[in-house]
Amino acid sequence: MLNLIQRLPKAELHLHIEGTLEPDLMWRLAQKHNIELPFDSVEAIRRAYQFDSLQSFLDLYYQGANVLLDEDDFYELMWAYLLVCKKQNIVHTEIMFDPQTHTERGIPFSVFMSGFDRAIAKAEQELGVSVYLIMSFLRHLSEEAAIDTLFAAAPYYSMIKAVGLDSSERGNPPAKFERVFAQSSALGFKLVAHAGEEGPPNYIWQAIKHLNVDRIDHGVRSAEDSELMLYLQEHQMPLTVCPLSNLKLRVIDKMEEHNILDLLSRGINVMVNSDDPSYFGGYLNENYAALVHSLSLSKEQLIELVFNSIRASFLPNEMKGKWLDEIQRIAQEA
Ligand code: ADE
Ligand code: ZN
């Protein structure tokens, strides 16, 4: 199974680039910029990655991002993840970035977008990985701040495929961002939002009804609402599920309790993603492997999940068709 996971061409649809910052790169960039970290070694950073909730993780995640200062830092961050894509046979990735995490520290769009652009162009040429960017608004900040961010991004619209919504879910319902999502849609962006990770099923309904999203990020709490399950199934609304993230952030207590295969068997369009791999103990293939070990993932289920990753992507239909054919070919051989 692990061999098949490696060989199948996969898409990743839920990944925060700031969440790929590995402790050794954090350490190196802190030294480069003379930034004092509250850790005395790379190992101490790793040891600090124990969380009891989304917020306890976000506190460390935003603190970690403080070492990202110049264009080269953003280039290195992006390039390191795209090398992982090559290694894990992730042929297409839709990557979230949080502009406000950087603009709030005085780092303008020109700095991080140029760094990202350089790494993405190199990866598309040299690694054959295709990349879309998703600009995510921080939901613990105001809608006005999100609107300012949407306008500040104007020179870079051609680099951005979709907008998203992330950060602290509880107390920050999707409906708070209705206007900025309508404006983003009018500009031609696809729409995604985190909902139903820690927040209730009602937040998933809000993302659908008020924000008009094309995909839900996480959405694992949809299982608590049978009417919602029916809606998700009928509309084939994708849920970008992140198993290791859910375990590390205590959305579930044990991987054996994860409901992803239950959702799959009920006809919901779910697939596997890594969210913030450096913080949660594994990239995409490790997330699939966790399902093999803890949920006895079958070959048929694996193929379905990988199929869904391509199907739920924002790739044009001819590219989807090409990858779906390739998955089918490898599945038949296996
Ligand atoms: N930002 C980075 N990872 C996140 C997650 N899992 N949920 C909400 N916001 C995030
Ligand atoms: Zn996320």
Q: Which geometry do the CA atoms define?
A: globular
Strand content: 5-15%
Mean pLDDT: 97
Q: How many distinct helices?
A: 17
Percent helix: 40-55%
Description:
The protein is an alpha/beta fold and 334 residues long. It has one domain (2-333): Metal-dependent hydrolases (TIM Barrel, Alpha-Beta Barrel). Helices cover 51% and strands 14% of the residues. An eight-stranded parallel beta sheet has the order 1-2-3-4-5-6-7-8. Helix 16 (299-311) packs antiparallel against helix 17 (317-333). The radius of gyration is 19 Å and the shape is globular. The mean pLDDT is 97. Bound molecules: adenine and zinc ion (ZN).
How do you describe this structure in short?
By secondary structure, this protein is an alpha/beta fold. The protein has 17 helices and eight strands. Strands 1-2-3-4-5-6-7-8 form an eight-stranded parallel sheet.
